[in-house]
UniProtKB/TrEMBL annotation:
It holds the Pfam family PhyH. Signal peptide: none annotated. One of its GO terms (molecular function) is dioxygenase activity. It comes from the Bacteria. This is Phytanoyl-CoA dioxygenase family protein. Keywords: Dioxygenase, Oxidoreductase. It comes from Novosphingobium anseongense. Residues 232-263 are annotated as: Disordered. Residues 246-255 have a biased composition (Basic and acidic residues). The keyword Zinc does not apply. InterPro entries: Phytyl_CoA_dOase-like (IPR008775).
């Protein structure tokens, strides 16, 4: 779905859209090189998921801005977002996931509570470097970007709604997996070159590749002109930018020299 009008409609209604074949073979190679750079240059955000060495992630490595710059400027993503939003686009940070031969299920959550930013012009681009079946893909609750913003999950084993922040007034996450029929859940089987674009306030979860599967995922986060700084009840997970919290207050335009302007 790259027709501007159709994408704008889906974005407003659902907060998520699957963009088939958005990346060319050369751009897939660029994305793979970025993923491999992060794989080979672990940053302060590296963690395993539940202690399972077959499932790990890394995010917001300060050194990645220089390593990713060429890939970002050759990518069609920023120009697409500029058309979608009707304004400028900045890149925020990267996150990669590796899941292999595991049933490790990512609990339902929103990304927004883990970041000090608010606004409609805010997007996550989910890029799988491997074919992903419908059963193994990430899933989304359509329209959940419209609110509320819930507390994050702490990813505590056995309690998918355990709050990330132990203070503040963000409501606790609902247990979506316990009663899936109550929620408008969607997901897509994807091939390399497809990109799932979603607002970080969309509830999402899942993505277990199973004992025979592998999923290498690169996610890229962008923001636009209406993005503002939003303090959270505690330390946020990302972006890892020295001085960011010292220089911004609630409602300030979300800007920092480290974030490259791409469109």
């Amino acid at each position: 779905m790259t027709d501007p009008a159709a994408l704008r409609e889906a974005w407003g209604r659902d907060g998520v859209a699957c963009l088939r074949g958005l990346l060319s073979p050369e751009q897939i190679a660029d994305a793979t090189a970025a993923y491999e750079w992060t794989r080979d240059n672990r940053g302060p955000g590296f963690t395993t998921m539940g202690g399972d060495e077959r499932s790990w992630q890394d995010l917001s490595n300060p050194a990645s801005y220089a390593a990713y710059d060429g890939m970002l400027r050759r990518s069609p993503i920023a120009p697409l977002l500029a058309r979608l939003w009707g304004g400028s686009v900045w890149y925020m940070y990267e996150q990669i996931f590796h899941k292999e031969a595991t049933d490790n299920f990512t609990p339902w959550h929103q990304d927004t509570p883990y970041m000090p930013v608010a606004g409609a012009h805010h997007a996550v681009c989910w890029i799988s470097l491997d074919p992903v079946s419908r059963e193994a893909t990430l899933e989304y609750c359509l329209g959940s970007h419209k609110g509320p913003v819930y507390n994050g999950t702490s990813f505590k084993p056995g309690d998918p709604t355990d709050p990330f922040y132990k203070a503040g007034d963000l409501p606790r996450l609902p247990d979506i997996e316990a009663d899936r029929s109550r929620w408008p859940i969607q997901g897509w089987a994807t091939e390399p070159g497809d990109v799932v674009l979603f607002h970080p306030s969309v509830l999402h979860g899942g993505g277990a590749p199973g004992p025979q599967g592998r999923r290498r995922t690169l996610t890229l986060r962008f923001f636009g002109e209406d993005a503002t700084y939003q303090a959270r009840p505690g330390r946020t997970a990302a972006p890892n930018v020295p001085g960011l919290h010292d220089n911004l207050r609630d409602g300030d335009p979300f800007r920092h020299p480290v974030f490259p302007k791409l469109a």
